[in-house]
Write a structure and sequence with these properties.
Elements lengths: L5 E2 L4 E2 L4 H8 L2 E2 L2 H11 L5 H4 L3 E5 L1 H9 L4 E7 L7 H17 L3 E5 L1 H7 L5 H17 L7 E5 L6 H9 L4 H8 L7 H11 L8 E7 L3 H10 L9 E5 L27 H11 L8 H7 L7 H10 L3 H12 L5 H33 L7 H7 L6
Parallel strand pairs: 5-6, 5-8, 6-7, 8-9
Antiparallel strand pairs: 1-2, 3-4, 4-9
The structure holds tryptophan.
Length: about 375
C-alpha cells in the first residue's frame, strides 16, 4: 500500500491516510462524544455522514455546539469553485450543510468562486467561469436549502465581499501566504489576494461560523483563525469531510479532467450504467468460482464505498451486503446493478429539481437570494 499522498486546495493525490492528515493539518478527530452530543441537541437520528464518519475531523466544533446550547447560535458557510460540471462527490457536502441548516435552523452562505477558478486555472476564460457558476448554482439550489435562510452568491457579482476581504488582507503577509499555500515569485497577484476573499464570508455575522466542507480547504481556515480575533470576530469552526473516491479506485478524488472517473449530476441513466459497469473498481476475485469460495473484499471496493458513503442509508442492509460479499454469497455484478439503480434514482430526482430551479435562479440571480415562496411554489412536495 502506498503511504505517500498529497492534499492541497488544488490537488489530492494518492491514497489519503485520514488519521495522518489530522496530525499534519493540526485538526482534531470528530469523536463519538461530539457526535452523540450532536444527536442530543438536534433530537434526531444522525445522518449517515456522521454515523459513518464521512465527516471525520474538526476545528472548534465543540464550541459551535456550546454556542448553540447556550443560545448564542452560529451560522454556516460553504462554497464551490465553478471550474466545470459538478459530479456526485461535489454535491455531497451540500447535503451535509442542508442537514445542519434543517436541524439547527441557521443561516447558510454559499460562495461561488468564479474569480478563483479564472485566476488559478491557466486556460479558464472569465466568461466560462461565470457560465459554470450559473450552471453549478442550479445544482446547488436543487439540493433544497431553506430559501429564507440561504444566500448563494457569486464573487464576481456580489462585490460587497471586497469590504470584508480588505481588513483580512491587511493582516496576512506574503510570507504567511507563501508558507500556507506555496505561492512563489511567479504566482499571479490575484492568487495572493484570493485567500482574503475565501475567508471573508466567515465574518458575515458576529457569531461563530461553521464550515462543513472537504478537508482540502482547511488551509484557508487556518489563516482565518490567525487573524479573526484581532479583527473582532470569532475564529471559524470547521467540520472536515473525506473525499468521495473516483469510480476507478480508492485514491485521489474524482477529477473533471478524467470523465470516466466521475458521475456527473447531468449524466443520463445509460451513461450511469455504462460508467459503473465499465469503470467501477470492485474487490472481487478473478473468477466466479473463486469469488464463491474466497469471498470478495468490500474494503477495496469502490461500489461498496459509494453505497457506504451516500447511496445506502440503511445500516442493516449495508452490513448484510458486507457480510454477503465477504462470504462469497454475492457477485460484483449484483452490487454494481444495485448501485446503478440507486445512482439513477438519485439523479432522476436531482435533474427534475434542477430543471425547476432554472427560472427561479435566473430571476433572482442579481440578489443571489432564493426566496422561500419561490421554492415552495416551485418544488413539488414529493421531491423535497
Ligand atoms: N475554493 C473552493 C473550491 O475550489 C470554493 C470555496 C469557496 C469553498 N469558499 C468555500 C469550499 C468554503 C468550501 C467552503 O471548490
Amino acid at each position: 500500500m502506498s503511504t505517500s499522498f498529497r492534499v492541497t486546495p488544488w490537488e489530492v493525490e494518492g491514497l489519503v491516510n485520514y488519521d495522518r492528515l489530522i496530525k499534519e493539518f493540526g485538526t482534531k478527530p470528530l469523536t463519538d462524544e461530539l457526535i452523540e452530543k450532536t444527536r442530543e441537541l438536534t433530537k434526531s437520528d444522525l445522518p449517515l455522514f456522521l454515523r459513518r464518519r464521512f465527516f471525520f475531523s474538526h476545528r472548534d466544533y465543540d464550541l459551535i455546539l456550546r454556542d448553540y446550547e447556550e443560545g448564542r447560535g452560529f451560522f454556516l458557510y460553504t462554497g464551490r469553485g465553478p471550474s466545470g460540471p459538478m459530479h456526485i462527490g461535489h454535491i455531497i457536502p451540500f447535503y451535509m450543510n442542508r442537514w445542519f441548516q434543517e436541524k439547527f435552523d441557521v443561516n447558510l452562505y454559499i460562495q461561488i468562486t468564479d474569480d478563483e477558478k479564472f485566476i488559478f486555472k491557466p486556460d479558464m476564460k472569465f466568461r466560462d467561469a461565470k457560465m459554470w457558476a450559473y450552471d453549478n448554482i442550479l445544482d446547488i439550489a436543487a439540493v433544497g436549502f431553506d430559501p429564507s435562510k440561504t444566500f448563494i452568491f457569486q464573487d464576481s457579482e456580489y462585490t460587497k465581499i471586497y469590504e470584508m476581504a480588505v481588513p483580512i488582507s491587511k493582516k496576512i503577509t506574503f510570507s504567511t501566504a507563501k508558507a500556507v499555500f506555496g505561492f512563489n515569485e511567479s504566482s499571479k497577484i490575484g492568487m495572493i489576494f484570493f485567500p482574503a476573499i475565501q475567508a471573508a464570508p466567515t465574518f458575515f455575522e458576529r457569531k461563530r461560523c461553521l464550515i462543513p466542507a472537504a478537508i482540502d480547504q482547511d488551509p484557508y481556515w487556518r489563516i482565518q483563525r490567525d487573524v479573526a480575533e484581532s479583527l473582532g470576530y470569532y475564529k471559524t469552526a470547521a467540520i472536515h469531510g473525506k473525499f468521495f473516491p473516483p469510480l476507478t479506485g480508492l485514491s485521489g478524488k474524482m477529477s473533471a479532467s478524467m470523465p470516466e472517473t466521475a458521475i456527473y449530476l447531468t449524466d443520463d441513466p445509460d451513461t450511469v450504467r455504462n460508467k459503473i459497469w465499465r469503470f467501477a473498481l470492485t474487490g472481487g476475485q478473478a473468477t466466479v468460482k473463486e469469488q464463491r469460495e474466497k469471498g470478495g473484499n468490500p474494503e477495496k471496493c469502490v461500489v461498496f464505498k459509494w453505497l457506504e458513503m451516500f447511496f445506502e442509508p440503511d445500516d442493516e442492509k449495508l452490513l448484510q451486503r458486507y457480510e454477503d460479499c465477504k462470504a462469497g454469497r454475492i457477485l460484483c455484478g449484483e452490487c454494481k446493478n444495485y448501485l446503478i439503480e440507486k445512482v439513477q434514482g438519485f439523479l432522476k430526482k436531482h435533474q427534475r429539481k434542477r430543471k425547476i430551479m432554472e427560472p427561479v435562479v435566473k430571476e433572482l440571480k442579481y440578489t443571489g437570494k432564493l426566496a422561500r415562496e419561490m421554492w415552495d411554489r416551485s418544488i413539488p412536495k414529493e421531491l423535497s
